[in-house]
Design brief:
The structure holds two protein chains of two kinds. Chain A is an alpha/beta fold. Chain A has three domains: about 5-70 and about 120-190, P-loop containing nucleotide triphosphate hydrolases (Rossmann fold); about 80-115, no CATH class; about 195-280. Chain A contains 14 helices and nine strands. In chain A, the strands form three sheets. Chain A has a five-stranded parallel sheet, with helices on both faces. In chain A, strands 3-4 form a two-stranded antiparallel ribbon. In chain A, strands 6-7 form a two-stranded antiparallel ribbon. In chain A, a hairpin with a 3-residue loop joins β6 and β7. Chain B has two domains: about 5-210, no CATH class; about 220-255 and about 285-455, 3-Layer(aba) Sandwich (Rossmann fold), CATH 3.40.50.410. Helix content of chain B is about 50%, strand content about 10%. Chain B contains 19 helices and eight strands. Chain B has helices at about 5-15, 25-35, 40-50, 60-70, 80-85, 100-110, 115-125, 140-145, 155-160, 170-200, 205-210, 225-245, 260-265, 300-315, 340-350, 365-375, 400-410, 430-435, 445-455; strands at about 130, 135-140, 290-295, 320-325, 330, 380-385, 410-415, 440. In chain B, the strands form two sheets. In chain B, strands 5-4-3-6-7-8 form a six-stranded mixed sheet, with helices on both faces. In chain B, α10 (about 170-200) runs antiparallel to α11 (about 205-210) and α16 (about 365-375) crosses α17. Chain B starts with a helix and ends with a helix. Classes of the chains: A alpha/beta, B alpha/beta. Chains A and B meet through α2, β1, α5, α9 and β9 of A and α2, α3, α10 and α12 of B. The complex binds adenosine-5'-triphosphate (ATP) and magnesium ion. Chain B: This is VWA domain containing CoxE-like protein. Chain B: Pfam families: VWA_CoxE (PF05762). Chain A: InterPro entries: AAA+_ATPase (IPR003593), ATPase_dyneun-rel_AAA (IPR011704), CbbQ/NirQ/NorQ/GpvN (IPR050764), P-loop_NTPase (IPR027417). Chain A: This is MoxR-like ATPase.
């Protein structure tokens, strides 16, 4: 049992400084209660990765992370034989017969465990974070589908390994490509968007405890206004937090036009976005 | 209605509205209902959403239907004084004079609690219109006309800004908040109006007319300005995918071809045993893209969308050149310099580019002009993408010219925003052009995405 109820999720996540809302809390609860993977999708910096970390921290589980990238393959995601070590063993035992050597080198000792296998074999409660799945090639989804349906892995030389206890699985995606229908069907879906100004203010207060509530509120509202502009890259929660830290470091307590103008680079990373914001917000 | 009936009816309505809810997902939702507290409506909504809705574009339709099948209140059962009471004990929403109601709305637009209860009471008071003996109709507009939230803006701004300078950031921020809350109020009113219509004449009837098709199924030729703004966000992922599809990868295993020399060289240090193998990096070949886009009025919203796509494509290709035409052609690449502002680029483009001679679309002339002036843009590495409805006002088509252009390119594709059934009717040259450059119906984002997926 991961969580007792959505309310329990809210409480325990906020104890590790992750502020949720009804939809986050309910999906996180259901993923545990129904034993289904949770797919969190949304723009950069809205707390997808942090959500998985927070679930692990709140439940005292081990976090195993598979970072996806273009070209990620089974050998990096699941397991690989330690070819180097095997060669050395073959050389060292060159007088022994091949069958014995073969049995010898396809054993645990020569197995390189990768995140998926590690999560499946883990004996302690584990949160498996499959981060940025949209960056991986489509074939990786096939592999995940297999593993996420029965939580077991067959290694031809070793046999089938089944999960001792099902990991809590979180997949994240920036939606740079459409994930396969099959994978989506298997998962619970959580669309993470930019938070309401009220929740963002609370996030800032949680992450930057020394900031004044009034300033946090101003920050949240200003960022919300910026997000309505037609920008290349809208500011994320991560940027709001950076901004809060910057203002503290500069000793500012008010967010007036001059202050915003001087620190705009912290929230808006593209020159064209900065130009646009200066114009639209009359900075 | 029992919970089971309600569940089944709701899932059915979602499917009717175009959401692809599978049997397994329906069962997931049913299992979810067994473990959550059904009296918590937010949780119930979230439980359904996370099991059944797997695309953000399906969410608005889902919410409309959820509010119909699981209404927040039932007429007759609900007592406005009791529910609204916690927020404004002194105000009798059924009898209070209009100015007091507007005061209350003003508070709500600044963020006070109790928006939904207030909206329900206002629909009760202002939304009803008699429709024949014993029958009534419900309308949002009569509620909005009575309370007129937009006329509260000036007063609210004056109050919030209290002496601060006007026109600056503070005003922007305040406006944004008030507009957002006004939108929420309108939504709450519409939701309650739909609920009452459903009570009077059945959920199914209203459900069908209340749900707009999801964004990716909206017809390009009938798109509104607001839709375009939303579509803008869809464009970047599409562009990335299109680029990935047109990029020829050397797919020799995931890690590329074995680098034999490096492997052998490295093995010398381990007595000739290749302990480490080296692979050549995969070297994707980035194609060049030429986009030729009909920008005439008949396809204006499609053109707008494809120009957005072109803009996004610039980031994905080593070289993109874009050309727009009505009856003559102009290179419009310059409006899309990296880092340029999309909105500005679009405005400048329509004002400054020279794409019109007499004003009526002429594909033949545009193609010939293109071949003559920019023919060298196309080479063996180029993908040529033509976007337009192939309607040429009965002018000579210049098929030979198109044949030459397409033969010189690596690939050529034509995307046509008209339904296939209308091709070749009237002045459409779809089949004639489509015989030279493969033509695909591309009426909405879903079809564009499908086209991209099929490219290989
Ligand atoms: N709900 C939240 N409560 C507290 N902090 C949050 C919350 N959401 C986001 N944050 C903060 O925002 C930062 C960025 O979040 P995170 O890295 O998880 O984003 P992401 O969605 O994974 O982005 P990317 O797509 O770029 O990986 C986190 O480090 C955290 O500090
Ligand atoms: Mg992340």
């Amino acid at each position: 049992m991961w969580f007792a109820s959505p309310a329990d999720v809210r409480e325990r996540l906020s104890a590790v400084d992750y502020l949720s809302d009804a939809s986050i809390a309910t999906s996180v609860f259901l993923a545990g209660a129904l034993g289904k993977p949770l797919l969190a999708e949304g723009p950069a910096g809205v707390g997808k990765t942090q959500l998985a970390k927070a679930v692990a921290a709140a439940t005292g589980a081990q976090l195993v992370r598979l970072q996806c990238y273009e070209g990620l393959d089974e050998a990096r995601a699941l397991y690989e034989w330690n070819y180097k070590k095997q060669l050395l063993r073959i050389q060292a035992g060159s007088d022994r017969d091949w069958d014995a050597t073969h049995d010898d080198i396809f054993t645990e000792e020569f197995l390189l465990e990768r995140p998926l296998l590690r999560a499946i074999r883990s004996e302690v409660p584990t949160v498996l974070l499959i981060d940025e799945i949209d960056k991986a090639d489509v074939e990786v989804e096939g592999l995940l589908l297999e593993i996420l349906s029965d939580y077991q892995v067959t290694i031809p030389e070793l046999g089938t390994i089944s999960a001792v206890r099902k990991p809590y699985v979180v997949l994240t995606s920036n939606a740079t490509r459409e994930l396969s229908e099959a994978l989506k069907r298997r998962c619970l879906y959580l669309h993470l968007e930019y938070p309401t100004p009220e929740r963002e203010r609370d996030i800032v207060l949680a992450q930057v405890p020394t900031i004044e509530a009034g300033l946090a509120e101003q920050l949240a509202r200003t960022v919300a206004t910026m997000r309505t502009l037609e920008l290349k890259k809208a500011p994320s929660i991560a940027e709001t937090i950076d901004w809060a830290n910057t203002l503290l470091a500069l000793g500012r307590t008010e967010l007036d036009e001059a202050t915003i103008g001087a620190t705009l680079g912290v929230v808006l990373k593209h020159a064209s976005d900065q130009t646009r914001a200066r114009k639209e917000l009359a900075l | 209605m029992s919970l089971l009936d309600r569940h089944i009816g709701f899932v059915h309505a979602l499917r009717e509205a175009g959401l692809p809810v599978s049997l397994a997902e329906g069962l997931d939702a049913a299992r979810a209902l067994q473990v959550i507290d059904l009296s918590e409506r937010d949780s119930l909504r979230a439980a359904y959403a996370s099991t059944l809705v797997k695309r953000p574009s399906h969410r608005p339709g889902f919410d409309v239907l959820f509010d119909l099948w699981f209404p927040a209140s039932t007429s007759g059962l609900y007592d406005p004084r009791q529910e609204g009471g916690s927020h404004a004990p002194d105000l009798d929403l059924e009898a209070a004079p209009l100015p007091e109601l507007r005061d209350r709305l003003a508070r709500l637009l600044l963020g006070a609690e109790g928006m939904n209860e207030f909206a329900r009471a206002m629909v009760e008071r202002f939304g009803r219109q008699p429709a024949g003996p014993g029958r009534q109709n419900w309308f949002s507009y009569s509620v909005m006309r009575a309370l007129s939230p937009e006329t509260l803006m000036a007063r609210l701004l004056a109050e919030v800004l209290a002496g601060q300078e006007r026109g600056g950031l503070a005003e922007k921020v305040a406006r944004q908040r008030i507009n957002e809350n006004t939108r929420r109020f309108e939504e709450a009113v519409s939701t309650d109006v739909r609920r009452r219509i459903a009570e009077d004449s059945g959920i199914e009837r209203i459900a069908r007319s209340a749900v707009r098709p999801p964004l990716e199924q909206l017809d390009f030729l009938r798109i509104t300005k607001a839709d375009l703004a939303r579509l803008r966000r869809e464009v970047h992922p599409l562009a990335r995918r299109l680029a990935a599809r047109l990029t020829v990868k050397h797919r020799l295993g995931h890690r590329g071809r074995l680098d034999f020399r490096r492997t052998v060289r490295a093995s010398l240090s381990s007595g000739g045993v290749p302990l480490n193998t080296f692979n050549k990096p995969r070297r994707p070949h980035k194609p060049e893209l030429v986009v030729l886009c009909d920008t005439s009025d008949s396809v204006a919203s499609f053109a707008h969308f494809t120009l957005l796509l072109t803009y996004a494509l610039r980031e994905q290709f080593t070289k993109v050149r874009a050309f727009g035409f009505v009856d003559t052609v102009d290179e419009i690449t310059r409006f899309f310099v990296p880092g340029a502002d999309v909105v500005e680029a679009m405005t400048r483009l329509t004002q400054e580019a020279d794409m019109v001679r007499f004003g009526r679309t002429n594909y033949g002339h545009a193609l010939e002009e293109f071949a003559e002036r920019y023919g060298d843009a196309i080479g063996p590495k180029t993908s040529l993408l033509i976007l337009g409805d192939a309607r040429s006002n009965y002018q000579p088509p210049a098929l030979e010219t198109l044949r030459r252009l397409s033969a010189g390119a690596r690939h050529a594709y034509w995307l046509n925003p008209e339904p296939t059934a209308q091709w070749d009717t009237g002045d459409s040259l779809a089949t004639a052009y489509g015989g030279i450059v493969p033509m695909h119906e591309c009426r909405n984002v879903a079809q564009l995405a499908a086209f991209i997926e099929e490219l290989a």
